[in-house]
Every structure is written in structure tokens, then in C-alpha cells.
Amino acid sequence: MTTLSTTTPFLSILAAAAALATATAAIAADGAATVTTTTEKTVTQTTVTVPATPAAPMAMPAGNPARASAQLKGGATGMGDGEVTMDQQGDAVLVHVVAGGLAPGSTHGFHVHDKGVCAGPDFMSAGGHFNPAAHAHGGQEMEHHAGDMPNLVADSNGRIDAKLVLHGVWLGGNSGLVGHAVVLHAMPDDYHTQPTGNAGPRLACGVLAAGG
Fold it and tell me: Which of 19, 68, 155, 161 has its CA 20 to 30 A from that of 107?
């Protein structure tokens, strides 16, 4: 909100009118303005509010798939072997991750990476996090990469069965997730260390393909 204040003599109405006109011009940027006119005897306050213009909805890419999936492979160790499915629901993606062979109660970073290549044994071929908008790394509630996802926690049997919701992303299109690798890391993502979250080595990797 923009607040403009003018102090005028008791009979100076013209200054108050000019201040109101200035505030009205500021509404386009701020959505609201308050004008306070102070005289020797009175204080008059006028507030003019205009609803904010809503952001244009994201357009779904042509041919956007309804579902994508990937088979997670943990290499020779088998740690993290499992499956990832993703379903497009409006401008959100519902993610279901099932993986096993992990330490009971362990927490693991999980991301979509830039390349669609999962060459073992370290899966560094998947590149860095998928980040078409060049954002900083972070959690879902802050600025983050398109490929940033919540940490996953294994149960007492070393198995992950988790469902996540990613907002504002598509499966298809030039900035979509299909064709990129999903990677399960050995350590939790701290969501602060740039650009990786300090999630440690890559345990398992799989490439997202439409369908499944």
C-alpha cells in the first residue's frame, strides 16, 4: 500500500485534491493507496483499493502426457531399486515413489536431474538438478529448482513408499520433466547448500518416460 501525506493550511483544498490524484496514479503499481490531508483543525483520510490483477494461469504444453514413470536402479548394490510414477493433475504433478534396500529410518534427497542418462556406478551422467528457470536451490515453500523435491524417509524395513505433490510443473513440453533422470541420494537435502542441497552420493537413478 502507498501512503501519501500532505500538510496544508486550513483553506488549502487544492493541495489535498492533488495528493488524491497522485495516489490514484500509484494504485496501478500498488493495488491500494491512502491519502492523509492534515489541516490545522481536521484530519481527513481517504483509502482507494483496487483488487490485484491475478497472474495468468500456466498454459499446459501441447501433447502433455497424463502420466510418466521411471524404474529406479541402484547399480550393483541394489540400494534404492524401485519405481517412480508421476501423474499430471492440473498444473500440479502427483509423485509416487517406491524404493527398497535402504537403511531403516534413513532420509534421502530426491531430485529430477538435468540429463536423461543414468550411467553407473555413480550416476553423475545425470548432471545437476533440472533447473530451466535458473532458480536457486530450495524447498517447495521457497524459490527452488523445477527438479527439487521433498526428502524421502525409509521405514523400519528400509523401504520408501511416499507420495508427493509438485506445484507449477508439467510432465511435457520444453520445460517438462519427461526425458530427465530422477535420482535418489544417500543423504538428506538441507535445502540451503547451493546448488545441490548437500545430499551426498547418488544411490539410484531412472529416466522418466511418458506412460507407465
Answer: 68
Q: Which residues of the chain have pLDDT under 70?
A: 1-58, 139, 142-145
| DSSP-based three-state secondary structure for 84 | strand
Beta bridge partner(s), residue 84: 70, 97
* CA distance linking residue 18 with residue 8, whole number of Å: 12
Confidence (pLDDT) at 75: 82
Share of the chain above pLDDT 70, in %: 70
* Domains defined for the chain, CATH in brackets: 2-49 (no CATH), 67-210 (2.60.40.200)
Catalytic residue (choose from 111, 114, 180, 189): 111
Please write the tens of the pLDDT for every residue from 110-156. 999 989 999 989 999 999 888 877 787 876 776 665 778 899 999 99
Q: What residues contact 25, with CB distance under 8 A and at least 6 apart?
A: none
96 is catalytic: no
Is 148 noted as a catalytic residue in this protein? yes
Active site residue 67: no
Q: Is 111 a catalytic residue?
A: yes
* Strand duo 32-38 + 160-167: pairing: unpaired
pTM comes to: 0.68
User: How many CB atoms are located within 10 Å of the residue 69 CB?
Assistant: 19
Q: Is 137 a catalytic residue?
A: yes
* pLDDT for position 73: 95
Distances in Å between the Cα of 37 and the Cα atoms of 12, 24, 33, 40, 61 are 10, 15, 13, 10, 52
Query: Which listed residue (113, 114, 144, 180) is catalytic?
Result: 113
